[in-house]
Amino acid sequence: MYSVSAALAPSCIWGIYVFGFRALAVLLVSIVCAVLTEYLLGKINKEFTICDGSALVTGILVGMNMSPTIPLFIPAIASIFAIAVVKWTFGGLGANWANPAIAGRVFVFFSFSSVMSSFKLPRTLAAVDMVSSATPLSLVKTVLSAGESSGMTSIQILANNGYLATPFAMKVQQATGISAYNVDAFLGNIPGCIGEVSKLLLIAGGIYLLCRKIITWHIPVSYLGVYAVLTWIFGGLPFGLGFFHGEVLSNLLRGGLILGALFMATDMVTSPITHKGMLIFGAGCAFFTFLFRTFGSLPEATSVAILIMNIVTPTIDRFCIPKRFGEEVKQ
Questions:
Q1: Does the pLDDT of residue 36 top 90, yes or no?
Q2: Which among 23, 125, 146, 306 has most CB atoms closer than 10 A?
Q3: How many percent of the chain have pLDDT more than 70?
Q4: How many CB atoms lie within 10 A of CB 244?
Q5: Beta carbons within 8 Å of 182's beta carbon, 6+ residues apart
Q6: Residue 111: which residues within 8 A CB-CB, separation 6 or more?
Q7: What is the 3-state secondary structure (H, E, C) of the chain?
C-alpha cells in the first residue's frame, strides 16, 4: 500500500504545482478523513488497521479524482463514504466488493454533479487566452450533443472552440507532427481532476509498480488495448466519420483512463485472481468505458465502468479458476 502511495505521489505533486495550494487542501482533506474514519472504525471493532496503508491509498485516490475547485466538504464525504460504507460495512480490508475510492468518487459525483464537473485552468495555461476551462472530453461531448461536429475530429473541435495549447506543445507539434493537444494531455497541461492530468507521471508510477511486481500487466494492457481497438473501429461514428476513423491516442490521453487502468482497476481485492480473469476484467472495463464515453451522456465514465466490473469479479473468478490437478471434469 505504501508503494502504491509512493507511485501516486509524483502525479499529486504535479497537480499541486499546476493547480495551486487549493489542490493540496483537497488532497489533505481526503487523506485525513479517510485515515481518521479508518482509525475510529478500527477502535470500535477492536482492529488496529490504520497502519496497513489502505486508508492512505483510498484518501489519495479520492483526492486525485477531485477538481481543485471542489468545496472541501465533498472530498470529505467521499472519503468517509469510501471507508465507512464501502470498506467497513462489508468487513474491512479484503472483504469489500468494490474499490472504495471509486465508489466514493461515484457517490459524490452523482450527488454533486455540477461542482464535480467544474474545473480550473492549470497555471501552465494561465498566460494563454482560452475561451473555456472545460476538460477536452467535456468540450467535445458538448459540441457533439449540440450537433455541431459536422464531420470534424475532436482535435478540430478543440481548435475551433478556442481551446489553445501551450507554446511548448505547439513547438513539439511543429517538430514531430503530434497534436499539441495530445502533448499537453500527456504532460499534464489541461484542466481536469488533480491527479489525472499528467499521464507521463501516472505511467511512470505504473511502471514502478510493475517492476516491484505489485501489479501485473494483464489488466492495464487489456483495458487500454481493448479500449484503443474499440475507439479505432467505432470512435469515429459520433463524429460522422464512419468506421475505423476513431482517434486512439487522444482518447487514451484524456480523462481518468490511465489513472483508472493503472491504479484503480488493478486493486487486488476487487479484481480477479487469475491472469485469464484479469484479461477479461480489463476488457470489460474497456467496453463499458468506451460505451459510456462515446455514446453516453457523460464525458467521463472510467469510474463507473470499473465499478460495474467490480460487481462482476466474483463471477469471473468462478469460471476462470483452474481445475485442481487430478480433478475430473464433468462431461
A1: yes
A2: 306
A3: 94
A4: 10
A5: 249, 250, 253
A6: 77
A7: CHHHHHHHHHHHHHHHHHHCHHHHHHHHHHHHHHHHHHHHHHHHCCCCCHHHCHHHHHHHHHHHCCCCCCCCHHHHHHHHHHHHHHHHHHCCCCCCCCCHHHHHHHHHHHHCHHHHCCCCCCHHHCCCCCCCCCCHHHHHHHHHHCCCCCCCCHHHHHHHCCCCCCHHHHHHHHHHCCCHHHHHHHHCCCCCCCCCCCHHHHHHHHHHHHHCCCCCCHHHHHHHHHHHHHHHHHCCHHHCCCCCCCCHHHHHHCCCHHHHHHHHCCCCCCCCCCHHHHHHHHHHHHHHHHHHHHHCCCCCCHHHHHHHHHHHHHHHHHHHCCCCCCCCCCC
Query: Considering the entire predicted model, what is its pTM?
Result: 0.91
What is the per-residue pLDDT across 203-240, written as a single tens digit (0 to 9) for each? Answer: 999 999 999 999 999 999 999 999 999 999 999 888 88
For 274-331, write each residue's pLDDT tens digit. 999 999 999 999 999 999 998 887 777 899 999 999 999 999 999 988 777 665 656 5
Name the packing angle between helices 199-211 and 2-19 (round to 10°).
Answer: 170
Say how many C-beta atoms besides its own lie within 10 A of residue 139's C-beta.
21
Q: Could you give the CA distance from residue 246 to residue 236 in angstroms, rounded to a whole number?
A: 4
Spatial neighbors of 23 by CB under 8 A, at least 6 apart, are 15, 16, 68, 194
Supply the pLDDT for residue 327. 58
